[in-house]
Amino acid sequence: MSSDTITEPATRAVEDPAELKIVPTRHYARWAAGAAVVVLVAQFVHGLATNPVWEWNVFRDYVFSETIVQAVWVTLQLTAYATVLGFLLGTVIAFMRLSRSPVLSTVAWTYIWIFRSIPMIVQLVFWFNLSALYEELGLGIPFGPVFVSVDSNTLIGTIGAAVIGLTLHQAAYAAEIVRGGVLAVDHGQLEAAAALGIPRLRQIRRIVLPQAMRAILPTAGNEIIGLLKGTSVVYVMSIGELFYQVQVIYGRNGRVVPLLLVATAWYVVLTSLLSVAQYYVERRYARGADRTPPPTPLQRARRFVTKEST
Amino acid sequence: MSAVMVDVHGVHKSFGALEVLRGVDLEVRAGEVTVILGPSGSGKSTLLRTINHLEKVNAGWISIDGELVGYRRSGDKLHELKEKDVLKQRTNIGFVFQNFNLFPHLTVLENLVEAPVSALRRPRNEAEDTARRLLERVGLADKAAAYPRQLSGGQQQRVAIARALALEPKVLLFDEPTSALDPELVGEVLDVIKDLASTGTTMIVVTHEIGFAREVADTVVFMDDGVVVEQGPPAAVLDAPQHERTRAFLSKVL
Asked: Per the domain annotation, does B230 fall within a domain?
C-alpha cells in the first residue's frame, strides 16, 4: 500500500507518531477493592497475634515436643508407604484394566468399583478387625492344603492394618489416574515403539509412562496431599499419628485451640514441601515438551536480584 | 536379477465391513525402490502397515527375505506368532511414519539408541557411535542433544529416518514421509531418501510426490480400491499408463 492512500489524522500536534504519549487506563475500582482486602487481612493477622485464645505460648511448647515430632514421623511414614504401595498397585491395576484380557480388565474394574465405594474410615475399621474375619492367614495351594499359617494379628500389626487400608483405598484412585495418563499418550508413540521392535515392558516403562507422567502428576500431587491429611482418620485405630496425639494431649490438658494449631502448622508445612517437590518433579517430566523450559521460581528470583544489583 | 526381498501374496484386510485390501500381490527385489501411488482410501498405507504387521491380515501372507511376517507355517496352517517374536521380526523392517512419531521426552540421540539397545541388545556406546554416524549422514550431527520439538518438521523426519536405519533393517517402509511437512521442507527429506536409494537400500515408499517417483523409483505401483491396478518402471506407469483409472489419477495430480 502506498502512503498517499492513508488519510492524515485531523490533528497534527506531534509530527512523529512514535512521540505520541500513551496514557494507561486508571483502575480506581480495582485499587479500592485491593485496599479493602488489605485492611481485612491486616485485621485477621492482628487478631491472630493478639487474641489470647490462640495461646501461642502453649503452641510454642508443643510444636517441637518429642511426642508431636514422633507423631509427625508416623504420619509421614503412613503417607510414604501408602503412596508408594498405592501407586505401584494402582499402576498394575491400571494396566490390567487396559489389558485385552476380559478377565483382567473385569477384575480391575471391579476392584476400582468396590474400593471407591467404601468410605476409607469404614475400610480401616474393617482391617483393624481383620483377626475377627480371618483368625489365621496361611500360605498353600488354593482350595488345597495349607503349608504355613500365622496368627493374623501378629502378622499385621495396627500400623500394618492402617497401611494396607490406606494402600488399597489409594490404589483404586491411583489406577484411574494412571489409566488417564496412559490414555493421554498419543497412540502413534506406541506404534512407533512397536515398529522399532522395542520389548513390550520396555515400551511401557521407557516410552509410555514417562509421557503419561505429565498428565498423571498434577492429579497424583492432589492425591498424595489428600492422603497426607487423610492419614488423620487412622486415629480411629488409636495409631499415634499427628491428629491422634494432638487429641490425646488436649484431652489431658484442655488446650484445644493451640494444639489444633500445632497439627495445622505441621500439615501446612508438610503439604507445602510436597507442593514444592511436585513442582520440580513435574518440571523434570516436562523435558522435551517446551522448546525452552521456563525458569524455576528460584532462578527467576536470582535473575531478578542480579538484575537489580547491576 | 536380485532376489525377492519383500513378497506380498494375496493379502486381504478388512476393518469391520469395509474391505480395504482385496487381494494384493507385490514383489520387491533387494536393493530396489518401489513407490506406491494411489488416491486416498486406496489401501496403500494399510498395505504398508501389514508388511511390518502393525495390521494383521485377514487372508494371504507376507514374507521378508523368505521369512513369513507375523506367522509360522506348519502344514497348511499359519500360526500367529507371539508378540515377542513379532517385535523381533520388526527390527528387520524399518518404518517411517507420516507424523514422525519421535519420542518427545528423549533427546535425538536417545531416540536413535533406544531400539538397538533394548531390542537388539547392542552395547550402549556402540549404539551411540552408530547413531552419531547416522545423524551425520542425514545432516543433523549437531542436533544429537536436542529434543524433537526443538527441531523443524523436516529435521524431525530426518531423525525418524536415522532412527529406522539404526536397526540396520533389511527393508525400509515410508508412509507418506513428506505429507506432514511444509512445502519448503519436503526437499530435504526426499534428498535423504534419494541418498539411501543410491546406496542400494530396499525401500517401499507410499507418497504423492510424482516427481520423486519418476526420479528414484525402480518400480511404480498404482493402487486403487484395495487392489494393484498396474505396476512397472516409472516411464511405463507414469507416462504411458495402460489403465483408465491410472490415467484419471495422474491427470489430477500431474
From this structure: no
Q: Note whether residue B137 is domain-resident.
A: yes
Nearest residue in chain B measured CA to CA from A286: B105
CA distance B89 to B78: 16
Q: Which residue does chain B place closest to A212, by CA atoms?
A: B105
Q: Note the pLDDT of residue B96.
A: 97
Query: Is pLDDT of A173 > 90?
Result: yes
What range defines the domain where residue B139 resides? Answer: 103-165
For residue B157, being part of any structural domain is answered with yes
Measured distance CA(B210)–CA(B253) in Å, rounded: 8
Class of domain A68-286: mainly alpha
ipTM (interface pTM): 0.92
Instruction: Specify the pTM.
Output: 0.82
Least CB–CB distance from B90: residue in A188, A197, A285: A197
B95 CB within 8 Å of a chain A CB: yes
User: Which positions ≥6 away from B221 have C-beta within 8 Å?
Assistant: B26, B34, B35, B36, B37, B228, B230, B231, B237
Q: Where are the domains of chain A?
A: 68-286
For chain B (254 residues), the mean pLDDT of every run of 10, in chain order, is 90 94 95 94 94 93 94 90 94 95 96 96 96 95 94 96 96 95 92 92 94 93 95 93 93 84
Domain count, chain B: 1
Angle at B30 between CA B210 and CA B188, to 5 degrees: 40
CB A195 within 8 A of CB B102: no
> Closest-CA residue in chain A for B52?
A195
Q: pLDDT digit string (tens) for B43-77?
A: 999 999 999 999 999 999 999 999 999 999 988 88
φ, ψ for residue B35 (rounded to 5)? Answer: -110, 130
What's the rounded Cα separation, in Å, for the pair B97 and B89?
Answer: 18
Cβ neighbours of A287 in B, within 8 Å: 105, 147
